[in-house]
Amino acid sequence: MSQHPNRARLLISCQDKPGIVSAVSTFLHQYDANIVQSDQFSTDPEGGMFFMRIEFDLGNSSPDFLRFKKEFHTLADKLDFEWKMELAARKKRMAILVSKEDHCLLELLWRWRSGELQVDIPLIISNHPTNKQVVESYGIPFYHVPVTRDTKEEAEQEAINLLKQHDVDFIVLARYMQILSPTFVESFPYRIINIHHSFLPAFIGANPYAKAFERGVKLIGATAHYVTDDLDEGPIIEQDVLRVNHRYSTQELRVAGRNVERIALARAVEWHTNDQVIVYGNKTVVF
Amino acid sequence: MSQHPNRARLLISCQDKPGIVSAVSTFLHQYDANIVQSDQFSTDPEGGMFFMRIEFDLGNSSPDFLRFKKEFHTLADKLDFEWKMELAARKKRMAILVSKEDHCLLELLWRWRSGELQVDIPLIISNHPTNKQVVESYGIPFYHVPVTRDTKEEAEQEAINLLKQHDVDFIVLARYMQILSPTFVESFPYRIINIHHSFLPAFIGANPYAKAFERGVKLIGATAHYVTDDLDEGPIIEQDVLRVNHRYSTQELRVAGRNVERIALARAVEWHTNDQVIVYGNKTVVF
Amino acid sequence: MSQHPNRARLLISCQDKPGIVSAVSTFLHQYDANIVQSDQFSTDPEGGMFFMRIEFDLGNSSPDFLRFKKEFHTLADKLDFEWKMELAARKKRMAILVSKEDHCLLELLWRWRSGELQVDIPLIISNHPTNKQVVESYGIPFYHVPVTRDTKEEAEQEAINLLKQHDVDFIVLARYMQILSPTFVESFPYRIINIHHSFLPAFIGANPYAKAFERGVKLIGATAHYVTDDLDEGPIIEQDVLRVNHRYSTQELRVAGRNVERIALARAVEWHTNDQVIVYGNKTVVF
Amino acid sequence: MSQHPNRARLLISCQDKPGIVSAVSTFLHQYDANIVQSDQFSTDPEGGMFFMRIEFDLGNSSPDFLRFKKEFHTLADKLDFEWKMELAARKKRMAILVSKEDHCLLELLWRWRSGELQVDIPLIISNHPTNKQVVESYGIPFYHVPVTRDTKEEAEQEAINLLKQHDVDFIVLARYMQILSPTFVESFPYRIINIHHSFLPAFIGANPYAKAFERGVKLIGATAHYVTDDLDEGPIIEQDVLRVNHRYSTQELRVAGRNVERIALARAVEWHTNDQVIVYGNKTVVF
């Protein structure tokens, strides 16, 4: 898990055209950067979209990262890339929004403390005080921002302010149970990850376990996705399922489901953290 | 896999009430039948539904099966059971309806020939001649009953007649791709098993793989269910899923999906064959 | 998850013979106990072993539990049962032994606090002080019992004394990383559950992830088993696996493996807690 | 699934060093070849081994494939590559060796006929006549080469001769149940794929299902691997598992295991067919 101190990651989206890999890899070689891993994907080799992720190590004679990025900018403009380049060592700042249930929260906190999840967590916001103590035992500031029907707008604004003040890179809804307004969503485009407690698009909306019980399904699932204005319709990052049977009550489905929810969410967060996800249209490429 | 020649299976559904297990097991013991396996399930121990499946071997001093059944009838009436008792050695008569795609058909035929699926297959019906040769190579009569918009009703009637003439116990739609009329469905209540090529209730209706591609799901699934008048809404017997990613085209999802379809269908058929499935409401208990 | 206050569980092992189910269910019915769930298994219906697990609710006219048990004793003696009867409400006393790694420990603590795992945890023992703080934040006494090559015997004796003083029902080795002496094992027969970090019997002994890396396997696994005198050879309760590939270093296998270890262990502990496991020979029946 | 008529695949193994991706992608671009997919893997970015797989489409101004290959040869020599370049349209010639059990054989034949498996099958060899009819119904020549203790050497020689006469690219042991001599193995280095009916390295050698039954495992598995001189020790290509429980007899494990065997083998064969597998040491990289 130890890695080169100058390990960097490059994500590229563009119209497919000949010579992209050659141009990029030659650029990297020319500036003494060594490709450690690369993945690419074309929706259609003849005129579709092209996506690429490269991990590379800057070398002894590479320029410093800022200048390196600036040089790449020129190439990227010429080839009409949408792109992003990050040092792996730069930890993203992740906020967590949570309600009363703690299983997704704890999963993220454990992985963070064990070093599996390489982020900083400047704050955790909840509409309930329930998880205050556990959050603070991890040394993370906890903000209780209650939400009622009447104060929803102000509460959201307060949350947005907190998130901006703490300069967060992305937000995880770890079973937050509140529908975010378009204003909130647009403040963090494709930077809010939600866990929905069903195998989308089955059981959109509230009470998916009750609906799953009603329908008599033999597997239950969970879906981690980016939040957009359409409820439960954002780009899917990860899904997983668990076998159940006729013996499960709605409540037992809910309890069993926690294990799929936290694992699927943790995977999605890890991939986002490692710059492994590119959104296109309403889908994701996960490298 | 070899089993006692007088192995029998008993399925019971009734209102839950005290003493059912005792009454049934005492009956069996009294008539020298030895319980080999038993499963039971109550939706709610206080006043819900009770379901039970018992496998037992008739003993040397048991009456013959017909008389045994008649004796049980008296008990069942007293306790207000819905019930079914079958000798395991009595092979069910299974018909297969298939269209052009052969993966589900071949899976069933292979399991049948290898002895995994203990049924007789008196006939296979298709609306296309495509699979005639392979079916006949297994020594099974193949009936080509073409269906067009104008002849749908007569074609269905022809199929029903064939199925009745061949005295079938149940029917498997192994990717038949035709919607059955209420008349057809009512002729074989809870005795028609369909395989739907999605993880229901996601992607109900036509072209589920195209819809799955569109939505960008990370798992695709298949659902084996009993056919009712509501399209894709019948009681689910079995579901399974397969991990996919952004690289799969609709056509590649379709190809990969075949493997989930045939496995999920084969399991459902096997459970039905072994009298392991009880329908209640719009759900199944699978023992 | 709420349950009848007089819910009880009965486990039976004996030589198979006719009439067992009838005798037991009639006994229960006669004392106004209502069977809620029952499972049984015969290794061979003709003269093998018979195993049974029944959940039942004592009724209004049932005798109290102690007398009920005493009455059953008479029947059990007559039919030559090995048996165990427990009130579901009686929480087992579980000790955890842990070393430095905390993932299995935290999984159990979370499930305990969320109410999924219905046990009391009177103490946690570790040969390292690492996890003292987290354990105490859950309000559980933490005992640091260091083990060195020279003090192993005394350390074990100290641990045994602590476990006996706290009257524990069973012990979970949540990555304890110490081989227990026969004396220790015999003090708690089939009441010590270990998690081995491989898919046994592959990679018995130390460093299974290094061995898995070396062998180039495509799945890694974990095995929860009862501890016996033969290292990694005790009866298996649960196993699970995770897909890996050539990109995983030994260290990355180790990190990924944590997720299989904690889930497999948690399942095994839950089954043990709910009296769902019967040991026979070197195997388990899990009802 | 349709693809560019001039789609080609390039596999490279070499010592890792800077500039490889750049050199290869620039070569391809320079000869008007468009990269469709590429994967790479370094065992250690600083001085380990480097592996790469590129799919590309030759363009209108590319030289013909033979000249293209020759040009690449020069680059490959300079950079000290071990490499392989193949047109995707060139179907590999696959032989199948089979004994009596037909499940793996049929799985391959179905996938071949449905177009999932893009190979030619010039012959199938068996030491038993059992599967003659089914093989010939697919229009494939069947050779019965009986093997007895005394004739093993001649029989092997006859098989080798048949395989060479039919100019096969690789051989699949679809439950062949005979141990091949070093002479045989060396005639087709890393071009023989076997399916072992256990999760290796558990249960090496004969009767793995009997051993799995004896050990009381909760999952059974299958392993597809290249054959080397060390029995069951060759590089693993794919593994899969299936959940079982105490109710499975050895025979039922065997029957259930067929489904894992055929799926794991089919995947391994497909990956080999598509030039997705590189062997290094005793492991595989599967791109």
UniProtKB/TrEMBL annotation, chains A, B, C, D:
| Residues annotated as catalytic | 232
Task: Establish whether keyword Iron is in the entry.
Answer: no
Give the reactions, separated by semicolons, that this protein catalyses.
Answer: (6R)-10-formyltetrahydrofolate + H2O = (6S)-5,6,7,8-tetrahydrofolate + formate + H(+)
Which pathway is this protein engaged in?
A: Purine metabolism; IMP biosynthesis via de novo pathway; formate from 10-formyl-5,6,7,8-tetrahydrofolate: step 1/1
Concerning InterPro entries, the annotation shows:
ACT-like_dom_sf (IPR045865), ACT_dom (IPR002912), Formyl-FH4-Hydrolase_C (IPR041729), Formyl_transf_N (IPR002376), Formyl_transf_N_sf (IPR036477), PurU (IPR004810), PurU_ACT (IPR044074)
Report the domain of life of the source organism: Bacteria
Question: What EC number(s) does the entry state?
Answer: 3.5.1.10
- EC class, as a word, reads hydrolase
Which GO BP terms sit in this record?
'de novo' IMP biosynthetic process; one-carbon metabolic process
Q: Which UniProt keywords apply?
A: Hydrolase, One-carbon metabolism, Purine biosynthesis
The record's listing under PROSITE patterns reads: ACT
Residue span(s) of domain ACT: 9-90
Molecular function in Gene Ontology: formyltetrahydrofolate deformylase activity
- Gene3D superfamilies in the cross-refs: 3.30.70.260, Formyl transferase, N-terminal domain (3.40.50.170)
Per the record's keyword annotation, is Hydrolase included, yes or no?
Answer: yes
Q: What does this protein do?
A: Catalyzes the hydrolysis of 10-formyltetrahydrofolate (formyl-FH4) to formate and tetrahydrofolate (FH4).
Q: Which family does it belong to?
A: Belongs to the PurU family.
Q: What is this protein called?
A: Formyltetrahydrofolate deformylase
Q: Which organism is this entry from?
A: Alkalihalophilus marmarensis DSM 21297
